[in-house]
Structures are given as structure tokens and as C-alpha cells.
Amino acid sequence: MLLTITTTRYPATDLGYLLHKHPAKVQSFPFTAGDAHVFYPEATEEKCTAALLLDLDPVKLTRKSSPGSNDFALEPYVNDRPYVASSFMSAAISQAFSSAMNGRCKDKPELVEIAFPFEVSLSVLPVNGGEPLLRNLFEPLGYEVSVQSFPLDTQYPAWGQSRYFQVTLRNTLPLRLLLSQLYVLMPVCDNDKHYFVGEHEIEKLMEKGREWLETHPAKELITRRYLKHLGPLTRQALNIIMKDEDVPGPEKLPAEKIRLHDLRLQTVRDLLLEHNVSSVADMGCGEGKLLKLLMEKNAFSRILGMDVSYHALEIAREKLKLDRLPELQKKRIGLIQGSLAYKDKRLSGFEAATLVEVIEHLDMPRLAVLEKAVFEYARPQLVIITTVNAEYNVKYEALSEGAFRHKDHRFEWTRAEFESWANKVATQFGYTVEFKPLGEYDEAVGAPSQLALFSIVAA
């Protein structure tokens, strides 16, 4: 697998000083199950490219199987590890570019904190969660993301696209920060690591993510994946990162929702931004996590959170720090207690409404009332609804057949059932609707969650 880093900041050959690697030399390093090579395909004062080539030996890999690896008997022999940018590439970055990643530059120390315009190319990156997840990880950090996907088999287009991408990232930032973010996020994309994960991994995550992870909207997802979903380690790390926030444990939230929660909320927020929405009512806002994401974007000038639970609203109030907000910010957001089982004029006049994992908590008679409350009485131009995908339940080993993911769920729909309901509602109330999967997509059973985007039909 190949990683290239290109800059055009004059003189571009300063990249060689930062990386502690001379552009005129090819340098090689013995590495776990192979070798890493650093060379420069191009090195002029106008443009300089450094390449890190990782050459893994498939035979050596069979002797390096990690704890917790796939139970498939041939997995050490039949895998993609020699061909993709995974945790092996992260380890190679740490070894080959350790001085640069730690912010040391012997000959030109003044370069360490300078933001360079960089273009990074990764061939090829596995992403469990597809392009939406990839963008949700890198775009909040200021990256421009370009991707090329690959089919599972060019002979059989109907099989669909693979989880592999040719990725190009562009950003202007210090090199040490770029390398630290790549180091953390590559194994997060892959959702796997080739080595044992223990408490020392928390220290590495805190060190590499100290300048950006705490404010990243997907910090929970990043932490869980980086620590291979090991509950005790994940909770310990999140307690450090989130500090004053209440970190949900398994007794408070099902594991599936913990992993998907950030992705759901970011997808909803990004759809609202994409449709140039300025006023949003989050119906069933809970403890205000979506509201917090919306508050970070100035595009949303009017935000309302409504929930039936007064306790949840109090938590939301504390997390949003409403009492300490500047007056102009306070005017942007409101919290109200209410129920979608009733017509509520306070919900009228918003361009968009969001219901994230709400409908499955209602029995059918109340769901019918909700339809009228949202689509007939409130009648926003845009409605976004997410719900779990029942077909995906077979992938949860701890879930018995026919059981629901949460004890408060009244139903869980398959993709066909959700689409049938959404199409009926759209037709009845004068909307169009489109659907999106949420989470890691499985060809047989789909994604863990599903999203419906309703748009009002123009008169």
C-alpha cells in the first residue's frame, strides 16, 4: 500500500527537512511482516512529494495473527492486509516519520508550527461505513475529501461497490498534525487493528488526538473503533476526552446505538446543511446531542428541541450550557416539553423537522397521530426520520431471534416495511421521500439504521 504527501508551499523541498528524509535518497526500514520504504517521486522548490510504500510479506503475516482476529480458519492466509492502508500503515508512519509526528525538526525548527498546503493520497483505504463515514471523519477537521470507489467484481456489477477507496485529502495544517490525524483515523476507517489493544492505546490516542479529538463531532465513534470496541478501555478514554459530559455505559444505551449515534446525528446535520435549512425543530431531542451539533453551525439561525421527558431536557440544558450562552446565541435555541401525540402550534413555522430514533418507541395508534402532528399540522418543508433496520439484528450475537434492540421499542421495521410506511405517509400528506442507509452496510441485510428524507411537494 502507498501513502503520498505533496506540498506546493515554496520552497516545497522544506518537506524533506520536516520529515527528516533526504529527497535524493531511498530509505528502507525493517517492519512487522515486511519493509517500509520512503522516497520522493518529485522534489522541486515548486512541488515536493514524499511517498511511504509498505511492502508486507503475506507469509510473515500468517505468523503475526493478532488476538481477537477473525475466527475464520483461513483468515491469516486469505485477507486484504498486504494491499490496504490499515493499522500497519499507521505503525509505519509512526516508525518512519516519528520525528515529524512528534513536532521535531533539527535543521529548521521554525517549520514545525507552519501550516502547509498538503495533498495526501492513500492507495487503497478500507472503510467500514463507506464514503459517508469517511467524510464524517475527515471533513470536520477541514479536509477536502475526494474518493474513487471500486466494484466488488468488474465482471458482476450487480454485486455493488466494495469497501475500498482511493482517497485524496487536501488541507492546510502543520505536518505533525496531519500525520497524527492519519495515524488515528486510518485504523478507525478500517475498524480493525493488527496488534493487541491494551491500556497503552489510550495513552497513544490521548497524545495523538490532544489538539483535535475533544472537539470532533465523531469523537465517540473514533474512540470506540480505535480501541476495538473494548468497553472498559473505551469508557475510560471517553471519560478523559469528554470530561464534564455524561459518558453512556452499556447499562444506559445499547451497544449498537453507542457506535452509530454520532454517525446518525452527523448525517442528519449534513443533510440539513445540504438543503440550506436555517430553522430546525428536533422532535424527540433527548439530551440534546443533535442540538449541540446544530449550534456549532451558524447556518442554523433558529433551533428548537422538544421532548416528552423533563429530565432529558434538563440534561440537554446543562450540556448546551444555556445559562452561560451569550444573548445572541440564546435567541437561536429553545427547549420545550411536549408530545407528538398532540397538535402543537409551537412546532409550526420551521423549515425542517428531525426525528432521530423516535418512531420505534410509539405503538401504531400513536404513530398515526404523530403522522398528522408532523406532516399535516407542523408541516415543515423537510422532514428527516431515522429508525433501526430489523434485518440487521441477525448480526448481533447477543440478541435472541425476534428480540428488539431496546426494551422500549414497540416495533422494529425491515427496509421494505419502513419504505412502505414512508411512501404511504408521503403520498397522504403531499411529500416526496428518498432513503439512505446509516452505518456499515452489509449486502445481505443492509445497514444497522435507515433514514427517510421527506421533501414537501411544491404547490
From TrEMBL:
It is an enzyme of class 2 (transferase). Its EC number is 2.1.1.386. The keyword Transmembrane helix does not apply. Residues 1-240 form the Hen1 N-terminal domain. It catalyses: small RNA 3'-end nucleotide + S-adenosyl-L-methionine = small RNA 3'-end 2'-O-methylnucleotide + S-adenosyl-L-homocysteine + H(+). Gene3D superfamilies: Hen1, N-terminal domain, Vaccinia Virus protein VP39. Transmembrane segments: none annotated. SUPFAM superfamilies: S-adenosyl-L-methionine-dependent methyltransferases. The keyword rRNA processing does not apply. Its cofactor is Mg(2+). Keywords: Magnesium, Metal-binding, Methyltransferase, RNA-binding, RNA-mediated gene silencing, S-adenosyl-L-methionine, Transferase. One of its GO terms (biological process) is RNA methylation. Pfam families: Hen1_L, Methyltransf_12. Residues 282-373 form the Methyltransferase type domain. GO terms for molecular function: metal ion binding; RNA binding; small RNA 2'-O-methyltransferase activity. NCBIfam families: bacter_Hen1. Belongs to the methyltransferase superfamily. HEN1 family. This is Small RNA 2'-O-methyltransferase.
